[in-house]
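Case 292 in the screening queue. Each case pairs one protein sequence with one candidate compound; here the compound is flavin-adenine dinucleotide. For every case the pipeline is the same: read the inputs, emit a complex structure as tokens, and attach any notable structural observations.

Predict complex for case 292.
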Amino acid sequence: MKPAAFDYCRPASIDEAAAALASSDSAKVLAGGQSLVPSMNFRISQPSLLVDIRDVEGLDGLEVDQDGVSIGASVTQSRVMNSDEAYSAVPGLRRALRFVGHLQIRNRGTVCGSLAHADPAAELPALAMAAGARLTVRGPQGERTAAADGFYLGPYWTGLEQSEIITGVCFPAEAPGTVTVVDEIARRSGDFAVVGLAAAFDLEDGSVGGARLVSFGVSGRPQRLAAAEEAVRGFHAGAAGDGLYGAAYEDAADAVGDIHASGEYRREALGSLLVRTARAVSASNGGKAGAR
Ligand SMILES: Cc1cc2nc3c(=O)[nH]c(=O)nc-3n(C[C@H](O)[C@H](O)[C@H](O)COP(=O)(O)OP(=O)(O)OC[C@H]3O[C@@H](n4cnc5c(N)ncnc54)[C@H](O)[C@@H]3O)c2cc1C
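Case 292 output:
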């Protein structure tokens, strides 16, 4: 199918972009177009105006310093994935991005576009929650920052107002002793996850001292696993995984069923994925080599 008729603008400044977005209730930001354009072709989305942000000055920065990795709204997923500096500061970024679609999609798709789109099966929103990332948002009232944890409200639904633009995101540098991993089960390489886990483990002498655990592809949004975060404390490579498995299973009580898998499958697979991941990370004793 072809999209419904729409207007298009390509502003050069964030002020112009914000004004264009505020000019219509159904205007939308166009970033890489890898999710928006297919949804327009299927007429799931029918924006009256596309505000293309690729030429907006100041949104193409990829900066790495001791605080972490700051990624502007027009920075592609490939650019971040290929940056060795970004990998050494926040290894989870490359670990998540290798699962995102295929090369051609990552070459156009943006990190911030994925965070804004909020597909419940997407890797980056879950990673952003596990890693404690903060988004910078520009709207008619000015600029604000928002923690990724708390930003995701439901399927394709965030705390972003229609007239707001994510101008960038900052992933804090991974602390010494922390290992951030992303793993998933998908039908084929490059497909969205059927079940996924983003996790930041704090290791102490080969045991897990604490963790931020976030599922994706399981329920209607990326979700912190509160019971599993308690159960994983003290976990080590030789520990029985039953308690941890059971906690993740309970956390995933609202797992959804669809044509790819039942809710019950997702609950069981999440528990297994978590135990497997916690074992591998504990066995690596804080070394990055064992981290997936
Ligand atoms: C075949 C295929 C496979 C894919 N597989 C995966 C996968 O496995 N995992 C995965 O996570 N993704 C996958 N994707 C999606 C891909 O990662 C997209 O690039 C991403 O979800 C959206 O990024 P984008 O820059 O293309 O955004 P766009 O498609 O341009 O926009 C998506 C939505 O976000 C809004 N938006 C974009 N940027 C901003 C911003 N800065 N501020 C406010 N709103 C904004 C748009 O208005 C729109 O509503 C796949 C896509 C395809 C086509």
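Case 292 observations:
- The CA atoms of residues 1 and 42 lie 6 Å apart.
- DSSP finds eleven helices and 14 strands in the chain.
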